[in-house]
Design a protein that fits this description.
By secondary structure, the protein is an all-alpha fold. Helices cover about 60% and strands about 0% of the residues. This is Flagellar biosynthesis protein FlgJ.
Amino acid sequence: MDIKPTTTLSLHPEMDKAKTLRKAAEGFEELFLTQFLKAARQGNLGEDIMGSSAVDSTRDMFDAEIARASSGRTGFGIADAVERQFQRFTKG
């Protein structure tokens, strides 16, 4: 008996392409917002009296959570633009 691998079968069922695209677009918007917040915080006006690595880590986690909660809901339109750009590749 000759057993050959097949490329047409997958162990994971294909998800809805439109939902997958939207989720990826919102993920990109989240990444963009995280970087935006991180860059905005780098502008220091003076010494931070509470400055420590723990404060910095907590601030980074807070910024990431703000970005996660805001992506796709803020009206920035980044996720919408990414989704429009790549929609033609999901048809098929």
